[in-house]
């Protein structure tokens, strides 16, 4: 933990340094605003104590310049005039806290502890934002004709607002197709909101999609915006849409027709601008014949239909996918990179892969944990067998 103390009074600097040294902190000193600013910008301090009244560049100017320079330390201002107006002015200018002279030992230590917690949260948030910013949508891996057709379709359809129905078995990558349709659209900077229609109980699906007003049902303790409102301006992905109740289907149809919705427990219309992409592993025409799916909704959703092939239909992509997963799992888990023999890749191509891409990834991870380096055909025979699935 590094702390910088900026104060023109030598006695204050040394007294504060003694307190913090005794607590095991690493402390630097600056005798005026100019040198303090230089140290704050050049060094990585967790906390900076800065006096307000100093000759030359005073504390407020120093604070403002530190904030302007992007100093991320928790800045605690010190003043011999501990009035509310000064404290408020400091906080508004970007200070974390404000302490008055004469300095109180317990107050200083509590301030340092709280500032430390604040700094930790800021660092975690920064790391998370960096991770989110650096993590792009996962690549659609494959050179097979089927995958090239899907990539070409995405490029052609994404810039439009046409509704898309993505079909295919579980684990084939339907969600990935939906994400790329959003990523390459004009809505890419707006929300991508996903709803797994199969995972939400039928009695809650309408509230989840359209929202509800406070008191509209027993557990509705506050107003809730539904997924359609959350996706306003962006894309709503209705995964497993074939499992949606007929009642919810009717309301979805209305939103698609009129671009407006009504929350549960309300009679007020809310306008929404949402592109809907749906996905299903079911044969919707068959579900229509059985009375489980509305035909008019099907036609609304299926302006464009993209079928994602099963892995068994694109086995030529298995070597590329396997190497991609090895690299991805190595980075995510910290495991060292693995080589894989050519005959091991050929052995993988012999499997039926009923679980599709998802199953292949699981098998690759298992081979990296249990197999050798390089991964051999014998490893594949031993650890990719049905008994391990």
Count of distinct structural domains:
3
Structural class, by secondary structure, is alpha/beta
Helix % is 40-55%
Largest sheet: 5 strands, parallel
Mean pLDDT: 89
The total count of helices amounts to: 16
Mind telling me the CATH superfamily name of the largest domain? P-loop containing nucleotide triphosphate hydrolases
CA-CA gap between termini: 48 Å
* Overall geometric form: extended
Any idea of the CATH topology of the largest domain? Rossmann fold
* Assigned CATH architecture of the largest domain: 3-Layer(aba) Sandwich
Strand proportion, as a percent range, falls in 5-15%
Biggest sheet strand order reads: 2-1-3-4-5
Could you give a short description of this structure?
The protein contains 16 helices and 12 strands.
Written description of the protein model:
The chain starts with a strand and ends in a 6-residue tail after the last helix. By secondary structure, it is of the alpha/beta class. The chain has helices spanning 10-22, 33-42, 59-68, 84-93, 105-134, 145-157, 174-183, 205-210, 227-230, 246-258, 284-289, 295-301, 318-333, 342-348, 356-370, 377-383, and strands at residues 2-6, 26-30, 47-51, 74-79, 97-100, 164-167, 192-196, 235-239, 260-262, 269-271, 275-280, 304-307. It is built from 16 helices and 12 strands. Strand 4, helix 4 (84-93) and strand 5 form a beta-alpha-beta unit. Mean pLDDT is 89; it is low at 130-135. The protein has 3 domains: 2-134, Response regulator (Rossmann fold), CATH 3.40.50.2300; 145-309, Rossmann fold; 312-388, Helicase, Ruva Protein, domain 3, CATH 1.10.8.60. The relative contact order is 0.08. The protein is extended and about 85 Å long. Helix 2 packs parallel to helix 3 (59-68), helix 13 (318-333) packs across helix 15 and helix 14 packs parallel to helix 16 (377-383). It has a 5-stranded parallel β-sheet, sandwiched between helices. Strands 7-8-11-6-12 form a 5-stranded parallel β-sheet.
């Amino acid at each position: 933990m590094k702390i910088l103390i900026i104060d023109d009074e030598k006695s204050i600097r040394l007294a504060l340094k003694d307190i913090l040294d005794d607590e095991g902190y690493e402390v630097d000193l600056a005798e005026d605003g100019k040198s303090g600013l230089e140290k704050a910008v050049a060094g990585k301090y967790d906390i900076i104590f800065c006096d307000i009244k100093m000759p030359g560049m005073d504390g407020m100017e120093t604070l403002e310049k530190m904030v302007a320079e992007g100093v991320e330390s928790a800045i605690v201002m010190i003043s011999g005039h501990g009035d509310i107006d000064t404290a408020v002015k400091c906080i508004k200018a970007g200070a974390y806290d404000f302490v008055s002279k004469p300095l109180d030992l317990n107050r200083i230590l509590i301030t340092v502890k709280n500032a430390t917690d604040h700094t930790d949260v800021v660092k975690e948030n920064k790391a998370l934002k960096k991770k989110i910013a650096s993590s792009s949508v996962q690549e659609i891996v494959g050179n097979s004709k089927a995958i090239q057709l899907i990539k070409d379709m995405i490029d052609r359809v994404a810039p439009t607002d046409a509704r898309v129905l993505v079909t295919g078995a579980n684990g084939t990558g339907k969600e990935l197709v939906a994400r790329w349709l959003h990523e390459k659209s004009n809505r890419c900077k707006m929300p991508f909101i996903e709803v797994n229609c199969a995972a939400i109980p039928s009695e809650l699906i309408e509230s989840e999609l359209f929202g509800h007003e406070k008191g509209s049902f027993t557990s509705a303790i506050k107003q809730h915006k539904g997924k359609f409102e959350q996706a306003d301006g962006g894309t709503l992905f209705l995964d497993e849409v074939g499992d949606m109740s007929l009642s919810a289907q009717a309301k979805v149809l209305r939103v698609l027709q009129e671009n407006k919705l009504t929350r549960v427990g309300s009679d007020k219309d809310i306008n929404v601008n949402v592109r809907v992409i749906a996905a299903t592993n079911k044969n919707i025409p068959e579900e229509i014949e059985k009375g489980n799916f509305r035909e008019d909704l099907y036609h609304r959703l299926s302006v464009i239909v993209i079928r994602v092939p099963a892995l068994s239909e694109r086995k030529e992509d298995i070597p590329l996918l396997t190497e991609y997963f090895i690299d991805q799992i190595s980075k995510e888990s910290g495991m060292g990179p693995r080589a894989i023999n050519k005959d091991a890749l050929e052995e993988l191509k012999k499997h039926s892969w009923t679980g599709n891409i998802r199953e292949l990834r699981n098998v690759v991870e298992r081979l990296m944990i249990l197999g050798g380096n390089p991964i051999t055909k014998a490893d594949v025979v031993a650890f990719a067998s049905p008994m391990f699935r």
